[in-house]
Amino acid sequence: MKKTLSLIMLMLLIGVCSSHAQDKRYQLYGVGFYNLENLFDTCHDEGHNDYEYLPDGTNKWTGLKYTHKLRNMARVLAEMGTDRIPIGCAFIGVSEVENAKCLTDLCNQEPLKARNMQFVHIEGPDQRGVDCALIYNPQLFQVRDVKLYPYIYVKPEDSLRATRGFLTVSGTMAGEHVAVIVNHLPSRFAGSFYREEGGRQIFEVKQKLLAEDPNVKIFIMGDMNDDPQDKSMAEALGARRKMKKVEEGGLWNPWWDVLASGTGTLQYDGGWNLFDQIILSRSLLDLKHMKDGKDVELSKIDCSTLKYYRHQIFRRDYLFQREGRYKGNTLRTHAGGAWLDGYSDHLPTVVYVVKEAK
């Protein structure tokens, strides 16, 4: 009896919707990504250039600032997905986190600890020490396998350089094989070539996953440091704008039209970019009944397996500056040398997928 009641409560929390016309129930899952903008602890990691995030560094990064940063990040992560699902996201890819200690401290924050959120992380070679990671709810997503594929510099003159790799996590969600590739591609200062090469390398990781299981549902997410229409995403990775253009084994990028509508996830020089993308494999698309992310009633989607349903940029008033010269800009941790006790220069993104509840 207790087991049955627990199952009912879990289904309510993860968003079970009913369609009275069809007398069917549908289970929603949230999948997110968030650039945490320099989640560093206050201790030096040997071999990493983390000096600006030390108590005597340029940011005067004290224990007080670190605990505030953890609290702020946990608030956002816990609220992501709750517009539709009370329990929040099944998993969230994150970037710009220094190490496993930061992730442990983050998951021990009350709103995440209450859900028993766990994390996957492999220490990478980035010279500043920042990595990608995956935070997940073990009630909704069970990890099978974890790999960190390195970003490979192909130019001989770059042989001594190192940056974030491609964190690839395979697991089970809604009884299906799901894989996520979490990325943080080279910066805009590095030049387009390096992000295009990153797109090609992500494509190869995706191909490996499909070779192992042609039916796997793949989410490619990260701070791409490029917009959806840029060469790294549109050509090297091959993520299409239109669903009907997605070939077998291909990818769909739902964020083209969002950016075209005039909004994005970070601001630069008075305009929006949309670097924080979650890209979907063809296996997640109902190509017969959906068209380019337009809203469709659940009863009209083939939900016999996990399928894309909605996507959103996660917005809350507290994520923006409310006054002054930069009113309306994202509220960062630091700006102009001052500690703002904010969040990130990026906004999070969320994709919702759905499956018919048996």
The total strand number stands at 18
Total helices: the number is 7
Structural class: alpha+beta
The geometry reads as globular
Binned, the helix content reads 10-25%
Biggest sheet: strands, sense, closure?
7 strands, mixed
Q: Assess the beta-strand content as a share of residues.
A: 25-35%
The pLDDT mean sits at 93
The end-to-end span amounts to 19 Å
Order of helices and strands: HEEHEHHEEEEEHEHEEHEEEEEEE
- Which spans have pLDDT < 50 for at least 5 consecutive residues? 2-8
Radius of gyration: 20 Å
Structure description:
- There is one protein chain.
- This protein has 358 residues and is α+β, with helices and mostly antiparallel strands.
- It has seven helices and 18 strands.
- The strands form four sheets. Strands 1, 2, 3, 4, 5, 15 and 18 form a seven-stranded mixed beta sheet that branches. Strands 6-7-8-9-14-11-10 form a seven-stranded mixed beta sheet. Strands 12-13 form a two-stranded antiparallel ribbon.
- The protein is globular.
- Residues 2-8 have low confidence and may be disordered.
Concise account of the structure shown:
This protein is of the alpha+beta class and about 350 residues long. About 20% of the residues lie in helices and about 30% in strands. Strands 1, 2, 3, 4, 5, 15 and 18 form a seven-stranded mixed sheet that branches. Strands 6-7-8-9-14-11-10 form a seven-stranded mixed sheet. The protein has a two-stranded antiparallel ribbon with strand order 12-13.
